[in-house]
Design a protein that fits this description.
Protein name: Polyisoprenoid diphosphate/phosphate phosphohydrolase PLPP6
Helix content: 55-70%
Keywords: Endoplasmic reticulum, Hydrolase, Lipid metabolism, Membrane, Nucleus, Transmembrane, Transmembrane helix
Number of strands: 2
InterPro entries: PAP2/HPO (IPR000326), PAP2/HPO_sf (IPR036938)
Membrane topology: Multi-pass membrane protein
Structural class: mainly alpha
EC number: 3.6.1.68
Number of domains: 2
Bound molecules: Geranyl phosphate
Strand content: under 5%
């Protein structure tokens, strides 16, 4: 990413740090003044600035003075983006770069394209449908009250996960990586968006659920954790997601389990629900 200093053509003042000065506060260096007189170029630069992209308008008046020349607010550009803005832009750039590098199974022609079918199998193992069908089947087959209680709550957790992920995807609307091929089976319309990864939320939540409610031997517990991690990692390898989609998905799924515990349907709750139905 070229530094603001490089873009300004090297016309630094004596401090050498004019590139972070706001045009609305003091006269710009000559190079910027020249560009500022061209409203089209100014608009293009303004549209390109991080603060502009975030849509955070200036708190100053609707016009700004540039060396005596009055410019409409839309033609002004803030050259002092916040540290947080720079950090977020950098993180986003690293995320996109890393995700592209890691998307080695994004299609058959990719460098690891031959393992794509295996990755798609991992994808199915974290898909919502097998989990919903599996939990419903275990609920139906379970002959103990404790088993039924656990399976019913797992079903509730899975539905809750689908709802919460759909809401976040619909609000954030981050597009999937350009190298992704949209050949996933059984998706909702919001699944064209990538933030957060629904597979990662489900994997994290279900892993916590299984570890907390099933009596598993140590090797199986490790296997559950490895499975969850691999489901998340495979999303990036398949090119379905950026790294941050999966990282946030894990975090969200981890937190969702706390919500499931808080909303836990106990036998008493169930009995009163059944009683109300009768
Ligand atoms: C149709 C049902 C019941 C669930 C959809 C599951 C699905 C395809 C989620 C998308 O996951 P990613 O966000 O990880 O791509």
């Amino acid at each position: 990413m070229p530094s603001p200093k490089a873009r300004s053509g090297g016309a630094a003042g004596s401090s050498g740090r004019y590139e972070f000065m706001s045009l609305s506060r003091s006269p710009p260096p000559p190079a910027l003044q020249r560009q500022g007189s061209d409203p089209t170029a100014a608009r293009l630069r303004a549209a390109d600035s991080p603060t502009r992209r975030r849509g955070s308008g200036s708190s100053t008046a609707s016009t700004s003075s540039t060396g005596g020349q009055q410019l409409p607010e839309e033609d002004c550009m803030r050259l002092n983006p916040s540290i947080l803005g720079i950090a977020l832009s950098s993180l986003l750039a690293i995320d996109l770069w890393l995700s592209k590098r890691l998307g080695v199974c994004a299609c058959e022609d990719s460098s690891w394209g031959s393992v794509r079918p295996l990755m798609k199998l991992v994808e199915v193992s974290g898909h919502g449908i097998p989990w919903l069908v599996g939990a419903a089947y275990c609920l139906y087959k379970s002959d103990s009250a404790a088993g039924q209680e656990v399976m019913l709550n797992l079903l509730m957790a899975l539905v809750l996960d689908l709802v919460l992920v759909s809401i976040v995807k619909a609000v954030v609307r981050r597009r999937r990586p350009a190298h992704n091929r949209m050949d996933m089976f059984a998706t909702f319309s919001v699944d064209r968006y990538s933030f957060p990864s629904g597979h990662a939320t489900r994997a994290a939540m279900c892993a916590r659920f299984l570890l907390a409610h099933l009596v598993l031997a140590a090797p199986l517990r490790v296997l559950v954790l490895l499975w969850a991690a691999f489901v998340g990692f495979s999303r990036v390898l398949l090119g379905r997601h950026n790294v941050t989609d999966v990282a946030f998905g894990f975090f969200m799924g981890y937190c969702q389990y706390n919500l499931v515990e808080a909303l836990w349907l106990s036998p008493v709750t169930l009995q009163s629900m059944v009683g109300q139905l009768e």
